[in-house]
Each structure stands twice: as structure tokens, then as C-alpha cells.
Design goal:
There is one protein chain. Helices cover 37% and strands 21% of the residues. It has one domain: Rossmann fold (3-Layer(aba) Sandwich). The chain is an alpha/beta fold.
């Protein structure tokens, strides 16, 4: 069955579908520090570093954290979707970075030279790839000696109370991203490639107060975005019941982590 991890061309030709899911996290996450600033503060970057963002999407991370990061970072924003690359470059070019360039590319065959970057960032994108080890090998290849790879992904238990609602569509009751490339897989593949990996989990939970935002997020990808009217009606009923049981709130624990590996000098 297709899910959030498949149909990339349709899912990510632009940022509209992604925005429905991003809104759920940005509006309803309860945390001492938000996800993007938290990640930015964990990255061991230095002023003037050359960074490759693989699967950059619309560049939201860099726009949100430019003031949290060292000065004069040179960004290469890469994505399989030309539309995403264009949006990311347009968003970041006017910000306080050094050089900002775009590169449409397949993560498993990066058209970039060996040892080109101080850091490679891959945020919530490896679960889309059928050959995850090859992608990590490519990220390793383009890193300079001493450079690091930073990967973010979800655990299999991420927001389970919410994903249980998608069983109406015949989906399993868990985060499809965490199932396709979760904590265990990230740690194993990065350890195998680099010989080292550290993991940190963002302390956060979800507290949703608007049922419609759950509906829009979970019908922004297959199979929900292709469901017939009967299943959509059943899905709305399931959401309504979940909010009734929760006295008008849907709460779920989050499992979202950052993995960092460093290439030997």
C-alpha cells in the first residue's frame, strides 16, 4: 500500500502537501524549544562551513534558523524535486548566508565531487528512498575528512495515537516514516558507514486542539488523499470520537531524533 514514503513526484512537486503535515507539528508541538532551533543548536557547525542539504524541501529549516547558526555558511540546497529546489533557493538567497546554490539531484547518485562539504544534512528524507545505504554512502563520499553527516527521522512510536486513526484507510497504526527509516535503521546504517554515531531525541509531545488539522495532515498523502467519500466520512467520525474521548484534545507522544556521524580525518 502506498503511504507518506511513496509517490514522491506527486507528493513533493511543491510544498503544499508537506505544509499540511508541517502545520500539525509547528502549531501543536509542546516543547521547551522548537524542533528547528533545537536541531540548529545541536549541529557542530563553524562560520564559513560549506553545507549540503540533501532533500532540502522548501528550505524552511534554514529560513527559520539563520539567526541560530554561525555566520557565512555556504549552502547547497539539493532535492529530487526541481520545484522544491527553486523554492528553497528563493527563500534563502536573501538571508544572511554566504553563497546559496541549488542542485536538483537523486540522493543515491549525487552529482558532486568527493570531499566537497564540511557537513551534509538530511532531514526527514531517507525514509523516502528504496536504497538508504547507497544514499548514506553518497553523503559520506562528498564529505571532507573530519566532516559530519546529520540525519533526522522519527521513531516507530512517533505520534502513535494519531496514526492509529489511519487504520480507517487500511494503513497500519503507526508512523509510516518511522517504520521505513526509524531509529534502529538510522543508527545501524550510519554506524556501518562511518564507524560512529550519536543520537539525541527532541523532548516534545503533540497536543492538537483542532480536529480539521488532523484531517488535513493525514489526508495529504496516500492512501488518505485518494480515499473515497465513504472512507473520508468514516475518518472524520474516527477523529471526532478521538477528540470526544480526549475532552476536545488529541494528545500523542513524539519520537523525533537527530543522528550525527563524523567522517574520519
Amino acid at each position: 500500500m502506498s503511504s507518506i514514503t511513496t509517490g514522491n513526484e506527486k507528493q513533493y512537486s511543491d510544498s503544499r502537501k508537506l505544509a499540511a503535515r508541517a502545520r500539525l507539528n509547528s502549531e501543536y508541538t509542546i516543547a521547551e524549544i522548537g524542533w528547528f532551533p533545537w536541531v540548529a543548536r545541536q549541529l557542530p557547525l563553524n562560520a564559513g562551513n560549506r553545507i549540503l542539504d540533501v532533500g532540502c524541501g522548501p528550505g524552511w529549516f534554514w529560513a527559520a534558523t539563520v539567526n541560530e547558526l554561525p555566520e557565512s555558511l555556504d549552502l547547497t540546497l539539493s532535492d529530487l524535486s526541481p520545484g522544491m529546489v527553486q523554492e528553497a533557493v528563493e527563500r534563502c538567497q536573501s538571508l544572511a548566508f554566504g553563497e546559496v546554490t541549488g542542485q536538483q539531484a537523486d540522493a543515491t547518485a549525487l552529482p558532486l565531487e568527493d570531499g566537497s562539504f564540511d557537513a551534509v544534512i538530511a532531514m526527514h528524507m531517507l525514509y523516502h528512498l528504496p536504497d538508504q545505504p547507497q544514499a548514506i554512502a553518497e553523503m559520506y563520499r562528498v564529505l571532507k575528512p573530519g566532516g559530519f553527516l546529520a540525519v533526522t527521522t522519527n521513531g516507530a512510536g512517533n505520534m502513535r495515537k494519531m496514526y492509529e486513526l489511519t487504520t480507517v484507510f487500511g494503513s497500519p497504526p503507526y508512523d509510516p516514516a518511522g517504520a521505513a527509516f526509524g531509529y534502529d535503521t538510522a543508527e545501524r546504517l550510519m554506524q556501518t558507514q562511518f564507524g560512529n554515531v550519536t543520537m539525541t531525541q527532541h523532548p516534545a509531545r503533540l497536543r492538537v486542539t483542532e480536529p480539521e488539522d488532523v484531517f488535513l495532515a493525514l489526508t495529504s498523502y496516500p492512501p488518505g488523499d485518494e480515499a473515497d467519500e465513504a472512507r473520508l466520512a468514516a475518518f472524520r467520525d474516527a477523529i471526532t470520537e478521538a477528540f470526544r474521548v480526549g475532552d476536545g484534545v488529541l494528545e500523542a507522544e513524539k519520537e523525533t531524533g537527530l543522528f550525527i556521524s563524523r567522517k574520519a580525518s
